[in-house]
Design a protein that fits this description.
Arc Repressor Mutant, subunit A; Rossmann fold; 224 residues; five-stranded parallel beta sheet; 43% helix; 8 helices; 2 domains; alpha/beta; four-stranded antiparallel beta sheet
């Protein structure tokens, strides 16, 4: 079963999440301190990391950035009391895959964990996809351009793979939110825009194959 790390300094929330996850037979490890949580996260493999934003000694944004800079591929879900759209976008820019605002439903949290685990397991069953000079390897979450590895976060990788597999189709921001995040962000479609911008920056700033479809969303040009 999945190995999950909870980095959360509120004891009541930590205990609640730990209890619910152990009922699902997940292996759960705990940390109440930012530096301690970071050291655990970077030194072991966790399928999912539940990461509080406000922590002693190191905040969640810094932890997330450091983990992504080390190519840690765990599915990271931010847990925070900050609900402002700007704070949510900062979490995604730091490399988070998902975001939950406190107070949250334990059922919704476990549903999102399961959805994230399903997507990562699906990727592992795939082999290799070629598109516009890119080599996408779902089994290892790797993308290469001209034999050079391109570093993507898990959510950026998911977005690229989904767009490529649906090339030629104009996909709305709501469709992308539903299929990649598994739920609606109450109209906060800029989360998708942030990830598209970062994909363009990393893959090809002058790309003509990743198009914005005005009034709808995005699509990748079908070339075959």
């Amino acid at each position: 079963m999945a190995n999950i790390l909870i980095i959360e300094d509120e004891a009541s929330i930590q205990r609640m999440i730990e209890y619910d996850l152990k009922q699902l037979d997940y292996t759960v490890e705990l940390s109440s301190d930012g530096k301690d949580g970071y050291n655990k996260a970077k030194s072991d493999h966790y399928d999912v990391i539940l990461l509080d934003l406000m922590l002693p000694s190191m905040n969640g944004l810094d932890i997330c950035k450091k983990l992504r800079n080390r190519d840690v591929e765990s599915y990271i879900i931010m847990l925070t009391a900050l609900s402002d759209e700007y704070d949510i976008i900062k979490g995604f820019e730091a490399g988070a895959d998902d975001y939950m605002t406190k107070p949250f439903s334990p059922r919704e949290l476990t549903a999102r964990i399961k959805a994230g685990l399903r997507r990562t397991q699906t990727f592992k069953k795939e082999d290799k996809i070629s598109y516009q000079g890119l080599i996408i390897k779902p089994s290892s979450y790797e993308v290469f351009k001209n034999n050079e590895k391109i570093e993507l976060t898990l959510k950026e990788f998911e977005l690229l793979l989904y767009l490529v597999k649906n090339r030629g189709i104009a996909l709305s921001r709501d469709q992308l939110l539903t299929n990649l995040w598994g739920f609606s962000y109450d109209g906060d479609s800029r989360i998708v825009d942030v990830h598209i911008f970062k994909l363009r920056e990393k893959l090809d700033k002058d790309s003509t194959w990743l198009k914005t479809v005005r009034g709808i969303g995005y699509k990748i040009v079908k070339t075959d």
